[in-house]
Each structure stands twice: as C-alpha cells, then as structure tokens.
Amino acid sequence: MTTPELDRQLRGHYGSFRRDHAVLRDGLLEQLPAENAGQRAARRAETTSRFFRRRLLMRLSAAAVVGLVVGVVVFLVNPGPQGTTWADVVKAIGPVESVQYRTSQDAGENQFAEVNTAAVNYVTPTAMRTDTWAGGPSYTPLPADMAAKPPANRRVVRRDGNEVTQYDVHWSDGRIDSVVQRIDYLCTSCPPLHAQHPDLSDAERVLAMWRALHNLPPESVLKRGSTEVDGQRLLRFQVIGGMTTPGAEGAAFGGFILVDPRTKRPVQLETGSTRWTDIRINEPIPADTFAAPAVPEDLDAEVTWQFTLTADAWHKPGFAFRVLDPQGKPVITEKDFELTPLGAGPGGFGGVSPEDGAALEPGAVPTIVSSTGQLTQQGLNKLDAFMARNPGAAMTIEITGEPPIKRQVYGRLSRDNLHGFGQGAVRVVLPTLADLKATTQPAQPGQPGLPGRPGAPAYGPEGMMEDGGGPRQPGGFRGGRLPGRP
Amino acid sequence: MTQDANGDPADDDAALVRATLAGRAQAFGLLYDRYAPLVRALCFDEVRDLTQAQDLAQEAFLRAFRELPRLRVHEQFAPWVTGIARHVCREWRRGAGRRRRHLRRVAEFGDVGTGADPAEHRNEASGGDADRDELCRVRDAIAALPRREREALHLFYLSEQPADAAAKVLGLSRSGFYRALERARARVQRILGLQRTRNGVTP
Fold first, then answer.
1. Smallest Cβ distance to A44: which of B24, B69, B157?
2. pLDDT tens per residue, range A412-455
C-alpha cells in the first residue's frame, strides 16, 4: 500500500468524525444552559467562601477519619506494649469503687476432681456477692453454659446502716433447695470493729489492694513483656516487694498483673496459686446483684438474727427490746430472751480466756458481765408463728437507745440446732462497755481475746468464734481463705 | 475555523474560554468546532460505535461547558475536554456492562437480543460494501495501535491546530509528536498490508 493510498483511507476514516458536525454543533449550543457559564462563575465566586469552608470541613473530617482509622489499625496490629507504663494502667483504672472478677480452684486430676470450682465475685465497699459453680475446670474461662446454668452456691453480703445482711442460696439439680438469711445488727455505740463480717472484710481488702496499686513506687513494678491468653495478647507486669496481695502478704513475690493493651486495664491477676481472671474494675454492677434472692414457692427461707448490743444498756432499768407487728403489737420482748454469761454456758464458748472468765465464780454473780442470749423456745414459737402467718409483712424492732429497725418478713426462723440449744435463730450478744473498750487493745499473740478484739477471733453470724480461737494473721484472711475463693 | 469570538482578536483556546465565561456561547461553539471531531474519535476508540461516540462527545462538551469555571488554566482546554470525554466513556462502559447483563438476563426468558455489539455498527459509512469493508479494516488497524500513536494520528487528521499545539495536547514535544505519528502510520500501513495479503489482495 502506498503512502497516498494510506493517507486517503485515513482521511476517509477521520472524515466520518466530521459528519453531521454542523447539526451536532447547533444541537449542542441549543442544549447549553440558558444561564451562561460566566454568570455561574460569578455566583460561584460569591459563594466561594462558604463553599470553601464546606469543602475544607469535609476535607478535615475525612482526614480525621482516615487518621483515626490508621491509628486504630496501627494500634491493633501493634499494641505497643513498650509504650504502656504502670502509670498508664493506674490512670486507666482510676479511683477503685468496685471490682468484678472470676476465680477458680483446681482439685487436680484425681478423685476430688468434682470439687473443682469456679466463682464469679462482685465487690463494692458495702457489698459482696460470690457465685460458685462446682466442677468447673481450673484456670480457664467459665464454661459457656454457666450463664444459663445456676451456680451451686450464692452468697450475698451487704451492709445497710447498722445491719449486715447475708444471704446464702444453694442449688441442687438446677433448683434452689435452701435460702438462708442472716442479719447482724450492731448497736450505734459499738465500735465499728464489731461490724466486721468476714466477707465484707475481704471485700474491703480487695478494694484496698487495688487502691494500693495506685501508690506503688515505679521501682515496685517490672514490665515482663506480653503473653497470649485465649487468643488475646496481654501486657504482663510483675509487682515486686511491698505489694499487699491477698494471700501473699509479706512474700517477696507480689504477683503478676496482666493488662489489656487496648484499655490499659488489668484483666488478670496471678499471685501464688491464686488466679483472678476477667477482672472488671469500676464497671457498672446491676442494682439487683445484691438484692434479696427470690424464694421459690415451695421453699421457706431460713432466717437467723443476731443483735450486738451493750450489756450495760440491756440491764439498764427501763430497757426494752420489742419486735412489733404491723399493728404495733409486740410479738416478742426482751423478756423472751434467756441470757448466759460468757464462759458459764454449757460446753462453754471455746476460746474465752481464763483471765476473762476468772471473775465469774459460782455464787458471785457480777452486776454486769458480757453475755450472750437467745430466744426461749416459747419466744421462738411466738415470733415464728407471726412470720408464718404474715409472709412479707412489715415489722418494727424497737430497742431502747437505737433507732427503730424496719424489716420485712422474709421466711421462717431457722430451726437448725445450731448450738445444741435449738433456739439460736434469734440471738443477742451483750459485751459490757468495759469489754468493748478493751477491744481497742490488741490481744497478745497466741492468746485468745474477747469477741471483736483485734487479733482475736470474732463472733461469726452464729455467734461462734470462727477461727477456733487462734490469732488472726495481721492483715490475713480468716482461715487463709481468699476473697472469692470457694 | 479560526474566526474571532464575537470580535475578540485572539482565537487561541484561552481567549475562547474567557469569552465563553464572559457569556458568549458562540465562543464555546468555536471550541467545539476545534475539538469535537477529536473528541468523537477518542470516544469511538472506547465504544467502537460512531453514533454512540457522537452522543458521548456531545455529553462531554455539555459537561465541559458546565464545568468551565473550574478550568483554572484556560490554555489547557484541549487536554481538559479530552479528559472529560474519557471519563464520560468510562461511565458509559460501566453502564453498558450493566445494560448487557440486564439484557442477557431478559434474553434468558425471552427471545430478546443482547444489545448493541460495536462490530454491528460499523456500517455507517456511505457507499458500497467494498468501501465499508475498507473503512472497517482501517478502523481495526487504528484500534490496534498503542494509545499514544493512535491519539497522534487522531490529532494529525482531526485537529486544525499547528503541530505544536497538537503535541501539547498529548504532552509531547514537536519532534516526539511527529515520531509517534510516523510510527502510527507505518504500523497502520503494515497492518493493512497484512490484511490484504490475508484476503488475497496484492499489496
């Protein structure tokens, strides 16, 4: 093919793009908007400022979003453990008001495997709840069905003014088979020490421990890299020396705290053989967590009461103790109680020192001594009959020198033969003012002291000394029991 | 072609753009005269259908008119409007894909054709079958060129601008433009020669 021939063919081809040009041109010019481009340009110039601002904002927003996404991605890909200090963790925790955590205990791979337990704990300054499941594997998340499956036991303890109420609920085969309510009342003039309840003391110590972590000096914390737990990488801090870890007091090794790098909050605690998981600090706890458990219709809750008052007030002329029905009629009074001086009861109250009981010689009854008391069988029957006939009714307890106590009938008085007497469902503990004053003095090591005395065994809900008369370890837990440990 | 826009002495693109912005639509008509064939050729490269290429070129110029206030460098009208044309063609292709898929689905339920095939629309050339065949061969040869060479060919045959201005549209120097043009012509010549040989026609 020659060049002129090629040129002819190309011109023939390109000529087709000029075909109908005039018609198309006229058509286009007719389609042009009536408003000319220049006018629109001028108007746009007038609105440039607003337009610019809008576009600027859009661009800034887009840049911010992109920056945020990049930051989040970078953070997720590389949590930056090297950048997280204990100070960051402390800052993320903030002032500790409540703690939720999970504990587990392993009985090992043996015949006791069925006693493996796991517990979920809720702790606030005035309340504590522990739900315990039996048979759970050790140191692993709770079984998936735990949310649906009721626990084996639930203990709720809460303080309302002068009262500490404890509920113990027990499940068997998925059904509640017992509910126990125990209420301890402490007189307004009694030292707060008497208000100590084992679980609430533990709760206070749990909170105190986390609060103490705020004040740890930098040299008390070591960064120990990170570890992967259940697919999640957690930062590892070791707290050394000086840390008051429950169950590990005084040990040079404080414990390891695992921190979520994203929230910078502790999620696990390992100290000695104890391991807390799923730690949630200051997360909201539903109000009904510490409410009185609902009692099934086929069950009566067992109720026990204990009042700690002063013997001086009890024996003062004109003293009255009355439980009133809704109409104000007394159901029982102080005359329905049978008192027993400390150290003189049958079988004794183990742990009372000879020094304390030496003055209580037969025939030489002191005017006022520390004593305990319980309802007579007749008084017990009267109060129990009232409760059986008036479920849910409001009642008032009047005690001279104390504000009126309002309670609601919750169940029936416990008929357990708690102390060999059978009437222990409603008890009074009556230390003298002198003995109360003595409670401010520490007991000698190895020497049992008076009820409530620091370093000495205190009265438990049943009025018995829980630690078998042995001295408590300073700052330790009763019987070495860790908070939340089943 | 190089007439003034309503008396403006300057007939370069920038002056015509300014005149258009000043409200003289005829100035835009002159820009259209200058670049519409080129834009149609570019659209044809994309759609291989002359009627469709004309429609797309119209759309490109309409958008250009609307967006003209955004053109900051008025001298760059030619690359700018060809860029708009390519964008319009891309949009059309995306829409065409959807249309084809839709028609294919409809065809599955009834005896409906699957729509336009660019190859079916090559018969717009007037004249006999021989002319049409020759035109188709030329178009196929041009379609086989690399983009840069093809556009150089378009500019040479369709732009009434001097070679310098045409080269600027492609972002080439004058010599670079001519080299691309020569390569394009040689390649088309070779392709057409091969086609003739294949069809039994002596070159």
1. B69
2. 888 765 544 445 788 888 888 887 777 655 444 433 333 333 33
Q: What is the DSSP letter of A462?
A: T
**Chain A touched by B158 (CB under 8 Å):** yes
Nearest CA in chain B to A24: B58
Q: What is the pTM (predicted TM-score) of this model?
A: 0.51
Q: Residue A324 gets which letter from DSSP? A: E
Interface test with B, best of A5, A28, A40, A55 (most B CBs within 10 A): A28
Q: Are A435 and A465 contacting, i.e. CB atoms less than 8 angstroms apart? A: no
List of residues 6+ apart from A208 with CB closer than 8 A: A244
Whole-angstrom Cα distance, residue A290 to residue B196?
96
In this complex, how many residue pairs, one in chain A and one in chain B, have their CB atoms less than 8 Å apart?
Answer: 105
Q: What is the pLDDT of residues A59-92, one digit of tens each?
A: 888 888 888 887 776 655 554 555 788 888 888 8
Tokens of B39: 């834009």
Helix axes A21-31, B25-47, angle to 10 degrees: 120
Query: How far does Cα B146 stand from its chain's mean position?
Result: 15
Q: Which ipTM score applies to this complex?
A: 0.78
- Angle at Cα A412 formed by Cα A409 and Cα A417, nearest 5°? 140
From CA B167, how far away is CA B185, in angstroms rounded? Answer: 16
The answer to whether B60 touches B39, Cβ cutoff 8 Å, is: yes
Angstrom CA distances, A40 to A430, B24, B69, stand at 96, 13, 8
Range from A104-113, A381-390, B141-150 carrying the lowest mean pLDDT: A104-113
Interface test with A, best of B21, B49, B124 (most A CBs within 10 A): B21
Chain B residue with CA closest to A1: the answer is B203
- Which H/E stretch holds residue A307? strand A302-308
**Nearest 10 degrees: CA dihedral of A330, A335, A337, A338?**
-170
Q: What tens digit of pLDDT does each residue of A47-68 get?
A: 555 555 667 777 888 888 888 8
CB < 8 Å to A20, chain B? 54
The answer to whether residue B9 neighbours chain A at the CB level (below 8 Å) is: no
Interface subset of B 70-109, CB within 8 angstroms of A = none
**Looking at chain A, how many residues does it have?**
486
Interface of A with B (CB under 8 A): 1, 3, 6, 9-14, 16-18, 20-21, 24-25, 27-29, 31-33, 36-41, 44
- Per-residue burial over A85-111, b = 16 or more CB atoms within 10 Å of its CB, e = otherwise: ebeebbeebeebebbbbbbbbbeeeee
Number of H helices, E strands in chain A: 10, 20
Q: Which residues, at least 6 apart from A280, have a Cβ–Cβ distance to it below 8 Å?
A: A99, A100, A101
Tens-digit pLDDT profile for chain B (203 aa)? 444 444 433 358 888 998 888 888 888 999 999 899 999 999 998 888 889 999 999 999 999 998 888 888 888 888 899 899 999 998 888 887 777 777 776 666 544 444 444 444 444 545 567 777 888 888 888 888 888 888 888 888 887 777 777 787 777 888 888 888 888 888 888 888 876 666 655 44
Choose the closest CB to A14 out of B41, B68, B124. Answer: B41
How would you classify the pairing of strands A412-413 and A302-308? parallel
Neighbours of A362 (CB within 10 A): 6
Burial class (CB in 10 A: 0-12, 13-18, 19+), A272: middle
Please name the residues between 123 and 142 in chain B that touch chain A, using a CB distance below 8 Å: 124-125, 131, 134-135, 138-139, 142
